[in-house]
Amino acid sequence: GGGPELRLQQELALGIGGWRLLNKLGHRPEVCHLNEGHAAFAVLERAHTFMLEHDQPFEVALAATRPGNLFTTHTPVAAGFDRFSLALMDLYLHRYATERLKISFRDLMALGRANADDPNEPFNMAYLAIRGAGAINGVSKLHGAVSRSIFQPLFPGWPLGEVPVGSVTNGVHTASWDSEFADRLWTDACGSDRWLGTTEGVGDKVRAVPDETIWNLRSQNCQELVRFVRARSEHQIASYGASQELIHNARTLFDSNALTIGFARRFASYKRPNLLLRHPERLARILTDPHRPVQLVLAGKAHPADQAGKDMIREWIHFIRRADIRPHAVFLVDYDMLLAERIVGGVDVWINTPRRPWEASGTSGMKVLVNGGLNLSELDGWWAEAFTPEVGWAIGDGKEHGDDPAWDDVEGEQLYQVLEAEVIPKFYRRDDSGMPREWIAMMRESMARLTPQFSANRTVREYTEKYYLPGAAVFRKREASRGALARAIVKANRGIRDNWSKLNFGAVHVETLGDFHQFRVQVYLGELPPDSVLVELYADPQNGEAAFRRPMHRGDALVGIVGGFTYDEQVPSNRPASHYTPRMIPAAPEVSIPLESSQILWQR
After folding, report:
1. How many angstroms from the chain centroid is the CA of residue 409?
2. Helix (H) or strand (E) holding 396
3. 492 within a domain of the structure (yes/no)
4. CATH of the domain at 595
5. Number of compact structural domains in the chain
6. pLDDT tens readout for residues 171-208
7. Based on the domain organization, do 439 and 547 belong to the same domain?
8. What is the side-by-side order of every strand in the sheet holding 135-138?
């Protein structure tokens, strides 16, 4: 907050100041995990530290240190990244660039621009993070794909699938969100150390828990939530000066035997927290059904500057204050983590309705899993990869529709239909012993399958194995001998940049022989060494399969032409020869392509 200048000051303190503080405290991390671009100035100060310690120029220092920087983006839209004007950057970073990094201010600005030559383009902190990182990831599989689209302009000519953004889906610290009763069940089934290491085998142990134990967990959780809602509501309305009648009614709110639905989150337009309120009378009929009652617990806040968010909260409060709705719904104010903990610990169903793909991951629905709560959510973020009919419900068609009000109508209708035709009937469908066996089966499978998968245990292990350990290993190699490998990489990359425009393709000959197409391509490399260029055949993804890539083999040199060679390769003829295109990219086994060297040349 406070405007762009204060924001820049904060990010300078976080990034540059943060790295200096670590050094002052004696910490020399091999891996620096940048969550969002807010801390991206750390890559500059880390490189500056390397410059001082090893007497190397900035370009070498950056090449040496960037493998130890991981950039995780949490933003699903390009407009969400921090940007700073040329004037602000000049005011705060001109001397830092020229006196400490020993580079021109233009070169510094280029690190945060898609087009280094555009003087009107602001400095993008996400771009700086990318230029200073050894790996990039989004926070769900879908968000990884969305981020590849966002960052594709930094890798011109590269297919979307090869934009170097991976993914690690978020997870929650399960032990922070389990209720007292859930903790007891999980301890009995899996032991007290179940979240201290690998979660392998945890799911099978939960699947062996009897129906009666699972349902007793649900009953205890909801009873505790009802006690909390009553006490919180009484205090809340009393503080507003409500009548004694309303205060008394708050003491008897809710029924622990009724289906309880919850959602609590930041109220913002893209999260569509009022999708369930799209048809108030229909929602009223759902809540007030005397034979199958439903109760609703809501909480949340809007940003002070978000008028639309505040208006949505007012709309809910206006609805809840209706005399017929008041016994069945409550909006709890002063939303924070402690309030969220109580809600996720006791609801039967958690609803989340963002506009796809604007929920990068979402974690609120993960927090109900350990407590036996089920999810009814948009196919976005983590739920897009978690949903199956055995563990919850979904709305949406798995496609993007922007902020089209007509599509909001479609998904609002889906939400009501799922509640009316699936969720509510399944909860109230009981056997002769009064047990909702189908509901319990969903609870058990959701707990067993999803709780370990979307826990911090899996997330931290995945980051460690996929990014931290490999990043640290590459950093150590590049740091060794005062950055000898980094110097070699900088020299090679400079040669590629200086000569890439001189590369071109000559004649292409294709012959189909039975099951194979035989390609022969003439290539002109100019002054570049042949080993510094990889010539490949490429075909776009097809029928759900990955893109086809195959290196071509260098053959004879072309007589009388410096840097001219033939390249040969055969590929399966199950696709037309026209599907395959020769291309050239840098060949550098010690370099992350295209993250660190993004040149590419297509034959057509």
Report:
1. 27
2. none
3. no
4. 2.60.40
5. 3
6. 999 999 999 999 999 999 999 999 988 899 999 999 99
7. no
8. 32-35, 69-72, 135-138, 166-167
For CA atoms 374, 376, 382, 388, give the dihedral sign: positive
Q: Mean pLDDT over all residues of the chain?
A: 96
Dihedral sign computed on CA atoms, order 454, 161, 584, 117: negative
**CA 333 to mean position of chain CA atoms:** 28
pTM metric for this prediction? 0.94
Per the DSSP assignment, residues forming a β-bridge with 377 are: 352, 394
Give the mean pLDDT per block of 10 residues along the chain (604 residues): 90 98 97 97 99 98 99 94 97 98 98 94 98 98 98 98 98 97 97 90 96 98 97 91 88 96 92 95 98 97 92 96 96 94 97 95 96 98 98 97 93 98 98 97 98 97 98 98 98 96 97 96 96 98 93 95 96 96 96 98 97
- From the list 427, 372, 421, the residue with the least C-alpha distance to 259 is 427
> How far is it, in rounded angstroms, from Cα 100 to Cα 58?
9
Distance CA 125, CA 105 (A): 16
Range of the domain at 151: 4-170+462-487
What string of DSSP letters covers 186-199? HHHHH-TTTTSS--
Residue 161 placed within a domain: yes
Check: CB of residue 42 under 8 Å from CB of residue 23.
Answer: no
Same domain, 422 and 472: no
> CA torsion angle for 464, 467, 468, 469 (degrees, to 10)?
90
Helix axes 41-54, 469-499, angle to 10 degrees: 80
Residue 1: predicted pLDDT = 56
* Judgement on whether residues 527 and 381 belong to the same structural domain of the protein: no
Alpha carbons 163 and 153: distance in angstroms, whole number: 9
Cis status, amide bond into 357, omega within 30 of 0: yes
Rg value, the chain, Cα: 29
For residue 336, give the DSSP letter.
-
Could you tell me the CATH number of the domain that includes residue 86?
A: 3.40.50.2000
User: Measuring CA to CA, which residue among 341, 342, 298, 343 is closest to residue 318?
Assistant: 298
Q: Alpha-carbon distance 400 to 379, whole Å? A: 10
Helix (H) or strand (E) holding 428: helix 424-428
For 264-323, what is each residue's pLDDT tens digit?
Answer: 988 999 999 999 999 999 999 999 999 999 999 999 999 988 999 999 999 999 999 999
Residue 594 preceded by cis peptide, ω within 30: yes
Among residues 512, 520, 493, which one has the least CA distance to residue 590?
A: 493
Task: Report residue 489 as tokens.
Answer: 């990489």
Please name the amino acid found at residue 346.
Answer: G
Same domain? 437 vs 519: no
The verdict on 155 and 284 lying in the same domain is: no
Is residue 170 within 8 Å of 602, Cβ to Cβ? no
Give the Cα separation of 100 and 46 in Å (integer): 12
Other Cβ atoms less than 10 A from the Cβ of 568: the count is: 15
> For residues 226-247, b (16+ Cβ closer than 10 Å) or e, as one string?
bebbbebbbebbeeeebeeeee
